[in-house]
Amino acid sequence: MTDRSENPEFLNSFLDYSATILNKSPNSIKEYNYDISNFLKYVKKQYNLTDETEIENINISDMSVDTLKKITLNDIHAYLAYMTTTFHSKAATRARKASTIRIFFKYLTQNEKLLDINPAQNLESPKLDKRLPKYLSLEDSQKLLDITANEDENRNAIRDYAIITLFLNCGMRLSELVGINTTDIDFSECKLTVIGKGNKERTIYLNKACMKSITDYIESRPQGKKDSKNSDKALFLSERQTRIGRRTVQHIVEKELHNAGLDSKQCSVHKLRHTAATLMYQYGQVDIRALQVLLGHESISTTEIYTHVENEQVRNAVEKNPLSGM
Predict the structure, then answer these.
(1) Does an H or E element contain 194, and which?
(2) Is 47 helix (H, G, I), strand (E, B) or coil?
(3) 8 A C-beta contact, residue 34 and residue 26
(4) How far is CA 116 from CA 65, 94, 103, 108, in A?
(5) Most CB atoms closer than 10 Å: which of 25, 150, 267, 313?
(6) pLDDT computed for residue 61 by the predictor
(7) Mean pLDDT along residues 14-42
(8) How many structural domains is the chain composed of?
């Protein structure tokens, strides 16, 4: 990750604006920093402003506003093409970079007024392939829960079961789960508050399975250590009694999937989120907009992918009609 000390002043100003005014999360700021610095390094190379041949080694700290004023839409298109041919970037990755570049140049033009013309004003996002989300079946989901709950040799079985239960019942993100504090849980109302993408707070309602798994874990949970991450307030703790980390949770999910005889390479933590959403839509007759709120999707189009799952099943049912081959 690029150090901010290596950035030109206008880039750091953009990052500060994104954090304080746009209220972007620390992870988003890191992505912005990487995407824009990488783009500026490419520009510097294309404009023959450096003798360095490796883009990652190019210094952009001395990049001037005059150079920014020379950038055109064609330069941005060329950069996205470069990401495709050189790094084989997927459409989703290029779409993220295009979005970041649009926000960056909008800031320089409208907020800082460093530029008179916004070269990214008409920049389109790469078209994304619509792929059906991968998810576990109801049978496999139940198998995963049963295996996790009955591991006698796992001293963290109660904790791990609670983690799997929340993922499969609530569809929360990994970052949301590790960030849960005990004070975020309202036991009387059976709900908890999480911080999602863009630092947006939302309420997740807890069913009986979630409430029981959380209660059982809290009763056996050790006291967390006081540290910079407020481990004493964290719901889920690691072996060191500090707030559990994202990688630890990923390892737990991979291990339990393996124990259940499921392919951990095909099903990740995020796939459990897809599973929860799919099961709620298929079996719970959940309204698509209610599902949007539950998952914390900003756009209804993101949630609509779960209706595509049902449509695909309808298509398969027609294809399996014994008269289909006649």
Answers:
(1) strand 191-195
(2) coil
(3) no
(4) 11, 26, 15, 9
(5) 267
(6) 93
(7) 93
(8) 2
Give the tokens for residue 294: 């539950």
182, amino acid identity: T
pLDDT value for 232: 84
274 is catalytic: no
Q: What percent of the chain has pLDDT over 90?
A: 52
The secondary structure of 51-103 as a DSSP string is: S--SGGG---TT--HHHHHH--HHHHHHHHHHHHHHH---HHHHHHHHHHHHH
Which of 162, 137, 136 has the alpha carbon at shortest distance from 148?
A: 162
pLDDT tens digits, one per residue of 243-277: 999 999 999 999 999 898 887 666 678 888 888 88
Q: Are residues 209 and 97 in the same domain?
A: no
- 315 catalytically annotated: no
- Domain of 20: which CATH number? 1.10.150
Instruction: Based on the fold, state whether residues 13 and 144 are members of the same structural domain.
Output: no
The stretch 77-105 carries a mean pLDDT of: 92
Q: What predicted TM-score, i.e. pTM, was given to this entire model?
A: 0.61
Instruction: Report the DSSP beta bridge partners of residue 195.
Output: 201
Domain that holds residue 79: 4-111
| Same domain as 201, residue 74 | no
258 is known as an active-site residue? no
Catalytic residue among 102, 173, 221, 271: 173
Instruction: Answer yes or no: do 177 and 249 share one domain.
Output: yes
Residue 98's pLDDT band (cuts 50, 70, 90): very high
Task: Please state, in angstroms and as integers, the Cα–Cα distance from residue 11 to each residue in 74, 75, 109, 127, 289, following that order.
Answer: 21, 18, 13, 28, 37
Find the catalytic residue in 41, 159, 273, 274.
Answer: 273
**306 annotated active-site:** yes
